[in-house]
């Protein structure tokens, strides 16, 4: 838990420091977002020279005339997962140091699978391979044990995450306005986990129970969603599971329909005490 407390403390305490550093040295990378009503760090489109797409990076690996040991192990591992899960190789990708061609012999294998259904299939397959002894899990803390996203293949650590398919993208920039309201601490039940594996991780919730009087809300402000911007809180709970949450209540307005709902965001960079813990 100390690891994640340190991560959140670093994020919260240094958010303004980062912004000031960019304002001073890279002002073009600071953008005032009218929909979130705050400055954010964002690369101008004109400054982006290349985009590394995980599935394209995997295709490049398969087309190399000769692969080194780590590249070959990565391809063998993804081939194993594809065959055992019946997920097409087209729905896999690589990212991290291997994708950027910046790896060393000690680097991990970072892979992605496209689509929430494919992620659940892969999750089941990896668990079966662990039970068969062909893979093993690597847990460094309680969140690792809940997510089960990290393991060992032969002598190499691997991590896998999910990327949305185009048809799973349900919003676009400028579609919603976000208004921060107040910090909350509460418990709730996960009603829908179909977007919990992505980043941001989205949990639809029910049975809101405030942890203190400051978190008591009127019915019209009870959040429908918990949204985590912090990667370590992806896929930490499933449907029916209970979670303990600390985050910022936001009012969300659909610009097109004027519909208003509320959500709680974890990872605002405002407070070091924002988290999602499975119960």
Walkthrough of the structure:
The protein is an alpha+beta fold and 279 residues long. It folds into two domains: 54-165, Beta Polymerase, domain 2 (2-Layer Sandwich); 176-278, OB fold (Dihydrolipoamide Acetyltransferase, E2P), CATH 2.40.50. 28% of the residues lie in helices and 32% in strands. The protein is built from six helices and 13 strands. It has helices at 2-25, 54-63, 69-85, 96-100, 116-131, 142-147; strands spanning 30-33, 38-41, 92-94, 109-114, 136-137, 150-153, 156-163, 176-195, 201-210, 225-228, 242-254, 260-266, 275-278. A five-stranded mixed sheet has the order 3-4-7-6-5. Strands 8-9-10-12-11 form a five-stranded mixed barrel. A hairpin with a 5-residue loop joins β11 and β12. The two termini are 14 Å apart. Residues 1-10 have low confidence and may be disordered.
Q: Which percent band covers the strand fraction?
A: 25-35%
By DSSP (H or I, 4+ residues per run), the number of helices equals 6
By secondary-structure content and strand pairing, the structural class works out as alpha+beta
Overall body shape: globular
* Sheet with the most strands: spatial strand order: 3-4-7-6-5
* Residues in helix, %: 25-40%
Radius of gyration: 20 Å
CATH topology group of the largest domain:
Beta Polymerase, domain 2
Q: How many strands? A: 13
Nearest-integer average pLDDT: 93
Which regions contain 5 or more consecutive residues with pLDDT less than 50? 1-10
The major pleated sheet works out as:
5 strands, mixed
First CA to last CA: what distance? 14 Å
Query: Architecture of the largest domain in CATH?
Result: 2-Layer Sandwich
What's the CATH class label of the largest domain?
A: Alpha Beta
What would you call the quaternary organization?
Answer: single chain
Query: What's the number of domains?
Result: 2
């Amino acid at each position: 838990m100390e690891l994640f407390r340190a991560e959140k403390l670093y994020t919260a305490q240094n958010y303004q420091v980062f912004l000031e550093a960019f304002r001073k040295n890279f002002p073009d990378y600071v953008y005032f977002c009218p929909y979130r009503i705050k400055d954010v760090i964002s690369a101008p489109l004109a400054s982006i020279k290349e985009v590394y797409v995980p599935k394209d990076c995997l295709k490049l690996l398969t087309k190399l005339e000769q692969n080194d040991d780590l590249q070959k192990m990565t391809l063998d591992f993804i081939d194993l997962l594809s065959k055992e899960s019946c997920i097409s190789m087209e729905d896999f990708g690589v990212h991290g140091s291997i994708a950027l061609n910046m790896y060393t012999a000690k680097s991990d294998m970072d892979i992605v699978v496209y689509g929430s259904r494919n992620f659940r299939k892969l999750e089941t397959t990896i668990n079966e391979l662990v039970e068969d002894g062909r893979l093993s899990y690597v847990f460094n803390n309680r969140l690792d044990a809940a997510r089960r996203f990290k393991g060992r293949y032969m002598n190499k650590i691997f991590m896998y995450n999910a990327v949305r398919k185009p048809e799973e993208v349900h919003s676009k920039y400028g579609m919603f306005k976000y208004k921060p309201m107040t910090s909350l601490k509460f418990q709730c039940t996960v009603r829908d986990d179909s977007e919990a594996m992505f980043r941001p991780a989205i949990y639809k919730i029910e049975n809101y129970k405030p942890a203190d009087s400051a978190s008591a809300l009127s019915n019209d402000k009870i959040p429908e969603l918990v949204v985590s911007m912090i990667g370590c809180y992806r896929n930490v709970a499933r449907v029916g599971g209970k979670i303990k949450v600390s985050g910022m209540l936001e009012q969300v307005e659909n610009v097109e329909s004027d519909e208003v709902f509320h959500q709680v965001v974890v990872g605002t960079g405002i407070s070091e005490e924002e988290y999602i813990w499975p119960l």
